[in-house]
Amino acid sequence: MKGYLQALPGVGTLFQRGEIQPAEVWAFYQHMQTRLRTKTANKADSLEMQLAAHALQRMGILDRQRFLEKYATTVGRTVYLPFEVGVPKGGWDLWAQVVVCVHEHQHVVQHDEEGPSYELAYLTSASSRARYEAEAYTCNLELHYWRYGTLPAVRPIAEGLKHYGCRPEDVEVTAHTLALTSVSVRHGAVVSEATHVALEWLNSHVPHLRAKQG
How many CB atoms lie within 10 A of CB 162? Predict the structure, then answer.
């Protein structure tokens, strides 16, 4: 099983002028799936996800209900989503759907780079899990900077790893890693492969969403 990403609280769901539109979100997912050879599935309908939720709870990694309702999850080349693409739901507004798509596809990149040992390390090692998530959260930072020209605070992101069964020391390492990464992102660096794939589409199809640079 690969990584999972939680919806952010307090995010609105109205379609506003200048925001990404449902059809654009759908087209973006098609681009990411084609380029990285993945597919999406509804998490609520998946027996595999029900079993994974039970296993994660028994392992002390994540509460079963929280896993099923609040997180997107990637297994193999399938991204399981707790929402319908292009339809805002709960904390998953349209831009959040774009961000989680890229985050989860970075986990696919990790699997491609490391092979089957990736899943084993992710499930059995808290420090490895934190490292993988720090890398995937780099996508979040890169997209946030592209969209808004600013960077979010990294401490709340790192603190979220407590829900992944990570230890306080893992949270501290992740916060430090993301802080260092933020410096590079602020200078225009894009280090994540999934973000590079995403920006191909975003720059071409919705350039008006990009924050003014300089």
Answer: 12
Token pair, residue 27, equals: 């087209």
CB neighbours of residue 132 within 10 Å: 22
Confidence of residue 6 (pLDDT cuts 50, 70, 90): low
**Which backbone phi and psi does 48 adopt, to 5 degrees?**
-60, -40
With cut-offs at 50, 70 and 90, classify the pLDDT of residue 14.
very low
Q: CB-based contacts of 129: which residues, under 8 Å, 6+ apart?
A: 3, 61, 121, 122, 123, 161, 164, 165, 166, 170
Q: Cα(149)–Cα(203) distance, rounded to whole angstroms? A: 14
Q: DSSP states of 42-85 as a string? A: EGGG-HHHHHHHHHHHHTTSS-HHHHHHHEEEEETTEEEESS-T
Q: What is the pTM of this model?
A: 0.87
The conformation of residue 15, written as its DSSP 8-state character, comes to -
d(CA 70, CA 9): 10
Q: What are phi and psi of 73, to 5 degrees?
A: -140, 140
- Residue 40 has phi, psi (to 5 degrees) of -115, 160
